[in-house]
């Protein structure tokens, strides 16, 4: 499902990022070979879903919700919800999503693959 949130009450990007932290998002900062940060990526596993927020620039952000069983949260095969566009609009839409009921805890862990990069490994 795509979101085209066009409300007038857009959140400030800094306030939106703080709201994600308050909700339990964990952040990673993928970097290139020279160490330059490419994006700010927040991930939150809750209930049976994973929410991902990627900030490339103030006018380029992406948020997704996917099943917790997804093997690659950065390129999921199944998206339950997706929103892309300016960061303020994407953050507003993401923060307006309801929390999913916790049926069973998502199992897995983040594993560092190289400096500044991590991969989610779902437990089998």
Overview of the molecule:
This protein has 124 residues and is α+β, with helices and mostly antiparallel strands. It has one domain. It contains 2 helices and 7 strands; from the N terminus they run αβββββαββ. A 5-stranded antiparallel β-sheet has the order 1-2-3-4-5, covered by helices on one side. β6 and β7 (117-122) form a beta hairpin. α1 runs parallel beside α2 (87-95). It is globular. Residues 1-8 have low confidence and may be disordered.
- Spans of at least 5 consecutive residues whose pLDDT stays below 50 are 1-8
Through-space gap between termini: 28 Å
Q: Give the biggest sheet.
A: 5 strands, antiparallel
Number of domains: 1
The coarse silhouette is: globular
Q: What is Rg?
A: 14 Å
Q: Which band does the percent of strand residues land in?
A: 35-45%
Secondary structure tally: strands: 7
Q: Assign the structural class, choosing from mainly alpha, mainly beta, alpha/beta, alpha+beta, or little secondary structure.
A: alpha+beta
Helix content: 10-25%
Biggest sheet strand line-up: 1-2-3-4-5
Query: DSSP helix count?
Result: 2
Q: Which H/E pattern describes the elements? A: HEEEEEHEE
Mean pLDDT comes to 84
How are the secondary structure elements laid out?
Elements: H1 13-22, E1 26-28, E2 40-46, E3 49-57, E4 60-67, E5 81-85, H2 87-95, E6 108-114, E7 117-122
Antiparallel strand pairs: 1-2, 2-3, 3-4, 4-5, 6-7
Helix pairs in contact: 1-2
